[in-house]
Every structure is written in C-alpha cells, then in structure tokens.
Amino acid sequence: MYPEDLKEQQIVRREKAQELKDRGIEPFGQKYQRTHTSKQIIEAYDQFDHDHFLDKTYEVSIAGRIMLKRGQGKAGFMHLQDRDGLIQVYVRQDNVGEDAYDLYKKADLGDIVGIRGHVFRTKTNELTVKADQFTHLTKALRPLPDKYHGLQDKEEARRRRYVDLIVNEEAKRVAMLRPRIIRSIQNYFDSRGFVEVETPVLQSILGGAAARPFVTHHNALDMDFYLRIATELPLKRLIVGGLEAVYEIGRLFRNEGMDAKHNPEFTTIEAYLAYSDMEGMMDLVEGCLSTVTYETLGTYDVTFNDTIIHMAPTWKRWHMVDAVKEMSGVDFWQHMTLDEAKAHAKAHDIHVEKHYSYGHIIEQFFERYCEEKIIQPTFVYGHPIEISPLAKKNEKDPRFTDRFELFINKSEYANAFSELNDPIDQRERFENQLKEKALGNDEANEMDIDFVESLEYGMPPTGGLGIGIDRLVMLLTNTPNIRDVILFPHMKHR
Fold first, then answer.
1. Strand ranges (DSSP E) for 140-290?
2. Distant-in-sequence, close-in-space partners of 413: CB < 8 Å, separation ≥ 6
3. Contact 445, 207 (CB under 8 A)
4. Angle of helix 469-477 relative to helix 278-297, nearest 10 degrees?
5. What separation in angstroms does the CA of 166 have from each of 67, 110, 176, 490?
6. Mean pLDDT across the stretch 17-29?
7. Contacts within 8 Å (CB) and 24+ apart, 428-437
8. Rounded distance, CA 91 to CA 89, Å?
9. Which of these, 378, 376, 367, lies nearest to 409 by C-alpha position?
10. Element (H, E) at 403
C-alpha cells in the first residue's frame, strides 16, 4: 500500500522501482566508475568533425540525470545532465542488448544512469556518446517540474534548492560562482601576508557592531551566549597578540528583519592590519574587490539590474558631511548644539529617536538624502563619533572618526576604520553605549572589560575592514535578492 497523498505519477514510479527489484536490479544503485564529465568530453573532442570519428574510437564512461528522452522503436536519444552541463547519448538496442534497452525505454526523466560508450558526431553534428552499456543507478520517485516552466514560484525554488539546481541553469551558475569569488578573496589576502584565523561563533558579550543578536543558552556552563554579530573584537585581540595581519571569512547572525538585502545569517570577511589606517583600508578594499571582479568575470564592468557598475580603480572618496551638505543644503561642519541639529531634522521631516545625538542626526540626513544617489563605487568617510564606538577620532575634528563605508548601487558593501587603540577612550565609548542601551537602543554594544584590558597591553595603530560577501556575490552574479545567492536561505513556514 502506498501513502494516500501520492499522485498518479509517483505511484507509477514506485511500481517501476518494484519492477527493478523483481529483475534483481537495486533501484537506488551502487558505486559507478566514470572517466569523464560532460564538460571534459566537450573539451577533449569538440575540436573534431564528423568524419574524424569514423575510423577512431574514443571510449568514455559518464553518469548523470536523464533530462530529455526522444525516439521510438529500437533506438533513441537522451540528454544526461551532470554538474557541468548536458551531453547527448544515443542508445540502440543492437548495441546495449534487449534487457538494457528495455531499462532505457522504461526509465523516467529524473532517473540517474551510467553510460559506457564511445564519442561520435550525429548527422546534425552534435557531439554524442553512443552507448555500449546502459546501467541504472537511481530511480527518481518524484517527477521533475515541467522543463519549460521549471520552478516558477521563487519561494518554492528557495525552499527546494535541490530541485532548483536541477532545472535552473542560473541557480547552478550562481552556486558555482560563489565559491570562486570567496576563493579569490582568500587568495588576495593570503598573497599580502594575512593569516586566516577562526574565532568563536558563541560569544558571551555583545560587541563589534550595532545589531540585535540571537541569544542561546549553554547548559553545562549555565550561561547565556550570543551568536556573534561580528568577528571584530576577537580579531583585534590577535593584533594585540602580535599576529599583525589577520582575516576571517565566516557567518554572522543578526536577529533583524529580512528583505532582498538581509538574511539573518550571512557571510563576511573581516581583516585587520597593524600599522595601517582608514586610507590603507580604502586601498585594500578597492584592490580586493576590483581584483576579485576581474578574476571571476574577466572584466571590471559589472551589469546589475541594467546598470553598469565600473569596478576598476580609482573610486570616489566623499566625506559624509560634504555629501549631506551637497545633497540637502545643511552644513554640519558648522558647530551647532543638539537642539539646533534637531531643529534641522524637524525642518527636513527626519524623525529623531530618544537616544539620538548630533551624530545620529547626521547619519539620518545621509540615509535620507545621499545613500540612494550613490551608484558607482564610493567611499563615504568621516562618520560621527556617536555611531562609531570602535573607530579612532579624527585628529583635526574629534566630532568625527576615521571610518568609511563603501557604497555601490545604493547599498553598503564594506565598513572600515582606523581602529581605536586607546583603552581609556574605548572604555568611555563602551560606557556611552551602555547609556544608549538603557535608553532603549537594542543594538548598543555591551562593556567588554577583557577587550579593554587587551588594549592596555598595547595594540599598534591598526586598520580594520569588513566586507559583505553575500552582497558582493549578488553584484557579481546580477542577482537582486540575497536569498538567491545563499543555497539554503531562511524562509517562513508554508
């Protein structure tokens, strides 16, 4: 008896699986030795014309999923799909024998099979494998979505990525390009003497960024932990320890809203370089992202949503206060009281929260008037001190910090600073964060006494950076939704 909710095709396929068993064939197969993938066959033999194969034999063994079948009588064609692509197979009863040909005829789309045979070109000039041996490997008990429509429902494609990868070439392209992008980033930092390290995902103190955390509990220690919102503070401890140039590529977790640019877990690279500063980090980010773009795409010009982004150096550098002045007319270089800043906010219809200071208001002006205007890669620097608790004060104007964010096509891609290495100043900033927390700012950092103590041993002047890898993959693959560059994104229940 079959489960009641099975559709007719699923019942038919289960019956075929039983028929295989009755013939002594395991429906879910054994190891299969293959010599080539579809791509390797094309690379090796595509250079030869039809006549070349008439007096030469090139034996191959391939395996893959049946995506197309056609033909009748005693011969037929099918398309096999493996990780690299599709290859045509010609199956003829005279070649494989009656039993194997019967297996071929009864095989369904989606079944996985092995083929041993030799390469030739058909009369229509398509490179094809003529089967000498047909081996059943795995019975597919569910039919694939219709070839021409695929998984039309995007939400369903994200929930069942395994099906999406089978029927959607674009999903596979993105899945294969992502690790190449990450490898290129690693190579860039490795080649410049950085050491790749790992730091804890479970952290007992909230710090390193402004974000709401996920909280979990460790039973043996009877302690609450946060899933990390940043890797910053442990990495800077390693700079204190003398490693001088470190980076980590890893998952961060933020308990916040989800949209086309935000997933609750996402991947970043953070890197720290002793004896550098904000400008050194600008050079590093620009060098890394332009190099990665060229290495993975073969061009510096990236098309994203019909907009061409020019990733070749040199990128614009724009002070946040200059940007706000240019776009809104309000000049925050002028010294003004908090009440005067609030009056400007009110006049420009900008909402002011209880914990907002002078710096928060500048940030709100930037988000309202400037962010949406930035298309080409632009370093926006000089963030107010109140919104940058871990960045060094600017020597000329201590209201601002030596910090930048990289914006491309209206989105933030990187965040970096001249790192704060003054333990007395750092303690004061943490104390101010605690006051903000008391006023209702869920994203404020907590006091990390051990980190302050580490700075008391002496951290060299240091530059630090963080780059959002998911957004970079979105840009380089022309994918507008973050959930389509993450193989298994978080989804609401159906």
1. 195-196, 202-203, 215-218, 223-227, 245-253, 265-274
2. 289, 406, 407, 467, 468, 471, 472, 475
3. yes
4. 40
5. 9, 9, 13, 20
6. 97
7. 429/389, 429/390, 430/389, 432/386, 432/389, 433/389, 436/355
8. 6
9. 376
10. strand 403-408
Please state the separation of Cα 218 from the chain's center in Å.
29
d(CA 151, CA 160): 9
Alpha-carbon gap, residue 203 to 197, rounded angstroms: 16
- Please give the pLDDT value at position 1: 64
Q: What is the pLDDT of residue 275?
A: 98
- Check if the beta carbon of residue 213 is closer than 8 Å to that of residue 226: yes
- Please name the helix (run of DSSP H) or strand (run of DSSP E) that holds residue 91, with its range, or none: strand 85-92
Asked if the model's pLDDT at residue 369 lies above 90, the reply is yes
From residue 388, give the alpha-carbon distance in Å to each of 113, 381, 428, 433. Answer: 58, 11, 13, 10
Which tokens sit at 298?
């073969």
pTM: 0.92
191 against 156, higher pLDDT: 191
Between CA 209 and CA 163 the distance in angstroms is: 37
Asked whether the beta carbons of 113 and 20 are under 8 A apart, the reply is no
Contact 263, 479 (CB under 8 A): no
Residue 482: partners with Cβ closer than 8 Å, 6 or more residues away: 260, 261, 262, 263, 266, 470, 471, 474, 489
Please choose, from the candidates 162, 166, 136, the residue with its C-alpha nearest in 3D space to the C-alpha of residue 30: 136
pLDDT at 292 over 70: yes
Nearest to 390 by CA among 354, 469, 444: 444
Instruction: Calculate mean pLDDT across residues 429-450.
Output: 87
End-to-end CA distance of the chain: 28
Kindly list the distances between the CA atom of residue 97 and the CA atoms of 12, 80, 102, 313, 408, in Å, as whole numbers in the listed order: 25, 20, 9, 62, 60
Position 150 scores a pLDDT of 56
Q: Tell me the residue length of the chain.
A: 494
Note the pLDDT tens digit of each residue in 141-179.
999 987 555 566 788 889 999 999 999 999 999 999 999
Hey, what's the torsion of the CAs at 365, 397, 442, 356, to 10 degrees?
Answer: -50
d(CA 349, CA 327): 15
Q: Which of 313, 323, 296, 317 is nearest to 475 (CA)?
A: 296
Q: Which has the closest alpha carbon to 188: 200, 178, 180?
A: 180
Residue 52 DSSP class: G
Residues 422-448 as b or e (16 or more Cβ within 10 Å = b): ebeebbebbebbeebbeeebebbbebb
Q: What mean pLDDT do residues 367-393 have?
A: 94
Please say whether the beta carbons of 112 and 81 come within 8 A: no
What's the confidence (pLDDT) of residue 13? 97
Give the pairing of strands 112-121 and 59-70: antiparallel
Q: Residue 418 phi/psi, 5° resolution?
A: -75, 115
Q: 370, 316 in Cβ contact below 8 A?
A: no
Q: What type of residue is 217? A: H
